[in-house]
Amino acid sequence: MRKVWSLKLIIFMTALLAAGAWIPQRFTVTITPSLRHRIYLLDRSPSKAQIVRHSYVLFEPHSKLLQGAKTTRTLKQAACVEGDVLIVKEGLYYCNGTYLGQAKDYSLKGEKLERFEFQGEIPKDRLFVFGEHVDSFDSRYLGFVRKEDVIAIAHPIF
Description:
Layout (H helix, E strand, L loop, with lengths): L1 H25 E3 L9 E5 L12 E4 L14 E8 L3 E5 L2 E4 L2 E5 L16 E3 L4 E5 L8 H4 L2 E2 L3 E7 L2
Antiparallel strand pairs: 1-2, 2-11, 3-4, 3-11, 4-9, 5-6, 5-8, 6-7, 9-10
Protein name: Peptidase
Organism: Candidatus Manganitrophus noduliformans
GO molecular function: serine-type endopeptidase activity
């Protein structure tokens, strides 16, 4: 009886360890108001073809404004993708004629923000990512995200 109990305990602990290693690699939680969903299932081996307009993408942005941040991995939605037309007029952003939002002049910390300016077709293998909140730090300030910098495609769960 003790051997059966010990075997069950070993199986349970092995399953728990496997789940502990698997779960953090498959899910992410966003705590900022940048996106409306909070929990996402991650596909960490996406092909470039899977990244389309409205896909949620996890990437590591390259910006001096993020120096010293606890984490730099960022989750945003691909609002405009290669072949789409992005127009920026006086800080207002449009993709294929659809209004996306407006850039701010200053960050929440009071730092002057440089807006990304662009007129024309999104280049090959580039994404214009966008958050749904007015204070989202996204392509309005970062510029294009390269598809090769996408770590995962995120599928909203909750």
